[in-house]
Design goal:
The chain has 271 residues and is mainly β. The chain is built from one helix and 26 strands. The chain has one domain. Strand 25 and strand 26 form a beta hairpin. It is elongated, with a radius of gyration of 26 Å.
C-alpha cells in the first residue's frame, strides 16, 4: 500500500501498531474508546461517554471522565478511575482498585486485595481473597469479604458488612449499621440510631451513642456500652459483663430472667 498523502501515511502507521503487541493506548474526546490488548499494557484515556478496556496481560488502567468506565483485567493490576456515573472493575488477579466520584462504584476481586472508594450513592465491594476495604460517604456501603479482613466505613445512611473471615470493623455515622460475623472479632461503632451486632466467634464489642444497642454473642465475651436509652444483652456463652455508664449517684440492681436468661437493670436512677 502506497501513501498518497500525509494523512494516508499516518493511517498506515496506525494500522502497523497492531493491538496484540506490547502497548495499546487510546485517547479520544468523542463518544467511545475501546481498547483490547493481549500484551502487557492497555491504557485508554477517555473524556466522552464510554471507556471499555479489556486486558489479558499485566496492567489495565482506565480513566474516564464521562458516564461509564468498564474495565476487566485477568492479569495482575486493574485500576479504574471514573468521575462520571458508573465505574465497574473486575479483576481476577492480585489487585483491583476502583475510585468513583459519581453514582455507582462496583468492584469485584477474586485475588488478594479489593479497594473501593466512592463519593456517590452506592458502593459495592466483593472480595474473595484477603482484604476488602470499602469507604462510602453517601447513602449505601455494602461490603462482602470471604477472606481475612473486612473494613467498612460509611458516613451516610446504611453500612452493611458480612465477613466470613477473621476481623470485621464497621464504623457508621448515619442511621443504621448491621454487622454479622462468623469469625473471631467483631467491632462496631455507631453514632446514629440503631446498632445491631451478631457475633458467632470470640469477641463482640458494641458502642453506641444513639438510641438502641443490641448485642448477641454465642461464644466467650459479650460487652455492650450504651449512653442513651436502651442496652440489651443476650448471651449463651460463659462470661458475661454488663457495662453501664453509671456515676456514683446511680443505683442499679441487675435482674436475670430464669427462662430467657435476659438481664435487665431494675431500679436505676439518674439515667
Amino acid at each position: 500500500m502506497e501513501a498518497s498523502s500525509p494523512t494516508d501515511l499516518m493511517t498506515m502507521k496506525a494500522q502497523q501498531n497492531f493491538r496484540f503487541g506490547n502497548t495499546a493506548r487510546t485517547t479520544t474526546s468523542g463518544n467511545t474508546a475501546r481498547t483490547i490488548v493481549s500484551g502487557n499494557t492497555a491504557r485508554p484515556t477517555f473524556y466522552g461517554n464510554t471507556a471499555i478496556t479489556t486486558a489479558y496481560g499485566n496492567t489495565a488502567i482506565t480513566t474516564a471522565y464521562g458516564n461509564t468506565a468498564i474495565k476487566t483485567a485477568y492479569g495482575n493490576t486493574a485500576i479504574t478511575t471514573a468521575y462520571g456515573n458508573t465505574a465497574i472493575t473486575t479483576a481476577y488477579g492480585n489487585t483491583a482498585i476502583t475510585t468513583a466520584y459519581g453514582n455507582t462504584d462496583i468492584t469485584t476481586a477474586y485475588g488478594n486485595t479489593a479497594i473501593t472508594t466512592a463519593y456517590g450513592n452506592t458502593d459495592i465491594t466483593t472480595a474473595y481473597g484477603n482484604t476488602a476495604i470499602t469507604t462510602a460517604y453517601l447513602n449505601t456501603a455494602i461490603t462482602t469479604a470471604y477472606g481475612n479482613t473486612d473494613i467498612t466505613t460509611a458516613y451516610g445512611n446504611t453500612a452493611i458488612t458480612t465477613p466470613y473471615g477473621n476481623t470485621d470493623i464497621t464504623t457508621a455515622y448515619g442511621n443504621t449499621v448491621t454487622t454479622t460475623i462468623y469469625g473471631n472479632t467483631d467491632i462496631t461503632k455507631a453514632y446514629g440510631n440503631t446498632d445491631i451486632t451478631t457475633a458467632y466467634g470470640n469477641t463482640a464489642i458494641t458502642r453506641i451513642s444513639g438510641n438502641t444497642a443490641r448485642t448477641t454473642a454465642y461464644r466467650n465475651i459479650d460487652r455492650t456500652t450504651a449512653s442513651r436509652n436502651t442496652a440489651r444483652i443476650t448471651v449463651s456463652g460463659r462470661p458475661l459483663k454488663l457495662l453501664l455508664n453509671m456515676d456514683r449517684n446511680m443505683h442499679c440492681s441487675p435482674q436475670q430472667d430464669s427462662e430467657t436468661s435476659q438481664i435487665t437493670c431494675q431500679g436505676c436512677h439518674g439515667l
